[in-house]
Amino acid sequence: MFPAVVNVSQIAQPFLDENFGWIVNVLFYLFFIVFIFYGQRIQMYVMLKEVEGSLLRLKYIKEEGRKIAIETIKEIGKPQDDPSQRVDRFLEYFALPPESMDPAGIVWKLEHILDVRDNRFKDEVRLMAPAANETQINNLENTLEAALALNYIYKVVRHFYILGKKTLSLYIIMQLQMILPLVMREAEAYASALKAFAYGQPIGDGIGALVAAKLMYGHEKRKIAKDCVVATVPLEGRTAYVVKAEGPGGNVGKPGEAMKTIIEENGGNIATIIVVDAALKLEGEKPGEVAEGIGVAIGGPGVEKFKVEESLLKYRIPINAVIIKEDVGDAVSPMRKEIFEAANEAIKRIKRVIQEKTKEGDSLIIAGIGNTIGIGQ
Amino acid sequence: MADKSSETTGTTETTARRISSFVLVVIFVTLALSLVALYFSMEIYPRNEAAAGYFLLIGFIGLALSSYMLLQMRKRVLKWRLKLPPIMTIIECQKCGFKNVREFKRGDYVFKQMGACEKCNEPVMITGIYREIKEQKKKEEKF
User: Fold this and answer.
1) Closest CA to A278 of A332, A348, A229
2) What is the pLDDT of residue A233?
């Protein structure tokens, strides 16, 4: 390794001295003293470095999201001007929730705010992409919403990183560092959702809509609520009103409103309601596992769930839920095979529930909940 | 799927920019010095065993530190790539059941009517779109 010109013994001579042992001993003591007084600070810098690494990655994902959104708008919408400025403005949009000091009637206020937000987003997308059709507008809106979520996650993490750095507070930095793996998981899920939305691919969350689509295929559909369709399907000798969001554009519709309307149309004469939706699985459970239960399996801000629960209470209608399990990443990324295959198992379960809980000639509602992107009917 | 390659290129550029050359130099200098320390320990072992022991310790610590940092860096580069597994579309004939599975194309959606069946000339339809994940063999979990 060392050529002959280097005399190793000469270089190593000072270290052969007996004093060298003392020097090393002192260095060791110094090392311990430094760690006693500055250990926490060193730990904090290590944590900050770790957060910084994740923040850089978040920044990259966020920029990639913005790039994908702009490219898709240019490709589909054929705008005359560069949409970058409009996209940047869109990424900063916010919606303020209604005041909850007096919670009576808050659901309707929240619904109104969500409706205004949705209309505003759609109008913006129409201006950005004038050549896009209604399905593409829905998909573009979903793409932009995923980019908006990524932008928000990045900004919140950056806020706490800078705050921690400024105050040198171990507890701010520690909390951020502890929660980061979960935040990164969510950000990565949104990153894969971007491509799915841009291309109009079905996502894991759409499994409820897929089940409903399979049940209603070949039957006449009519619009029942905003972005929602219903088909009257003869099933196991019963009349099933199958509800789903109108596809194939990215849409969740208003399933609560749709179910409420069907119940009112039938004068409350509904034997049972079966809600099919994707649900978050616990670690250790397999994706695509199907489970049955009771309750209104509708996620989101709670407005649609509230509407159904009000009608259920009014007419004392029993409610069943069939859920298909998946993790947060699967819910917003292209539907994985195991989840896609679970649709048939969910249909079997629905049929069994119908046979066990209703009589021949009864009417019932089956609602497939979720984003229907890439799923027609 | 068409812009998959361009995306990968973009990712590589970003990662290349992120790795500081200063950090790389520091890592390689530490690596070189640790090797020198190990060599020293062998050289001076017959004359001073204690000093040789210290050099051995310093050498190993330096070696461990620099290789750990290098591995971490490599892990970071690998992690920064957004992997997108292929999305498949199933096209099925409702009459004869003939199935065709191909890569997803923009505009595909479940229940979309496609052309005619290759076998019976009846109209075919998209019956499924999914992402296939080839999971690596994991150690059997206890729970």
Assistant:
1) A332
2) 96
